[in-house]
Amino acid sequence: MKEGLPDSVLTHLRQVVDRPDLSGTRYRLRGPLDRGGMGRLWIAEDIELLREVALKVLAAPDPSREEAARLLGEARLLAKLDHPAIVPVHDAGALADGRVFYTMKLVRGERLDAWLAHGPPRPARLRLVQRVAEAVAFAHQAGVVHRDLKPDNIMLGPFGEVYVMDWGVARAAGRDEEASGTVVGTPGWMAPEQARGEARVTGPPTDVWGLGALLLFVLVGESPGAGLGRLRDVPRPLASLCAAALEGDAARRIPSARALADDLERFLDGNPVSVHRETLAERAGRLARRHQAALLVVGSYLLLRLLIFVLAT
Questions:
Q1: Measuring CA to CA, which residue among 230, 251, 249 is closest to residue 239?
Q2: N or C: more exposed end of the chain, with fewer CB within 10 A?
Q3: pLDDT by residue (tens digit) across 62-108?
Q4: What's the pTM?
């Protein structure tokens, strides 16, 4: 009985087959970048504009027409989304072997989990989720749903840039592109209706759940599967916001990505959060924190007046 080829040889052959032939294009291949479920990312040089770009191309050999249409559809969806936190598409076309490709901005930086390992303060973590929510809200306004929000798909650039990456399973809201029962997304990071394969009801609320999952992750370092138990260690308005976004019933979730971003802004500015009913003590504490400087000045003045009074008697 003949033995098969060693894994190292098979890996090398696969890389050779997948390696795109960029002859006849304006690009020169630099090297591999990443691999996705449908295609592979490469670093290429745009020889006309003298810049490096990310090139996504279907995996070889012999991709189907459906796969080619999906990749081109992904490029067209991204091209509609002109937002600072969404990577812009530069070009699209076909290689000499017929495989579809598109190029986009090459993002350098680190993923969300690596950034969190540096121990950024809570306000910085909340600002990040707010910026992600704003990008997702922009996509929803353009009729696009991401459907795969997770830490691996959030990148931070070296100058504070935030990017929502990997729109490979995104779709136009309201379009049923998968058969009922088809599960699209990442296990552990899917909204309940998404995990059940209910394609007809996945839409903006599905991404709202994903934003809630990201909020939970930046607050306590846990995925949604770990539950909301550790939220008792964070301020109650944030716990309420997280729970409202992770509501199992899509109709009862916080209404939109924009609303979630706005509530994060309110919390950071010392204002009440729409999904949390404050107690009297919470309201007093929030106002005290918000006006801490003014209270300190008033308190110092009253203490000085008291001291003068005591010394004068």
A1: 230
A2: N
A3: 678 888 888 998 999 999 999 999 999 999 999 988 889 999 999 99
A4: 0.83
pLDDT digits (tens, 9 = 90+) for 168-202: 888 887 665 555 556 678 899 999 999 888 766 67
How far apart are alpha carbons 141 and 125 in whole angstroms?
A: 25
pLDDT at 60 over 70: no
Residues across the chain:
313
Q: 18, 148, 166, 263: which one is catalytic?
A: 148
Beta pairing partners, 90:
none
> Active-site residue 148, yes or no?
yes
Q: How far apart are CA 88 and CA 110, in angstroms?
A: 18
* Helical packing angle, 122-141 and 257-268, nearest 10°: 150
108 and 53 Cβ atoms separated by less than 8 Å: no
- In angstroms, the CA 42 to CA 29 distance is 7
Structure tokens of 89? 């598409």
Whose tokens are 């759940």? That residue is: 209
Tell me the C-alpha distance between 146 and 210, whole Å.
Answer: 9
Residue 306: both structure tokens together: 């008291």
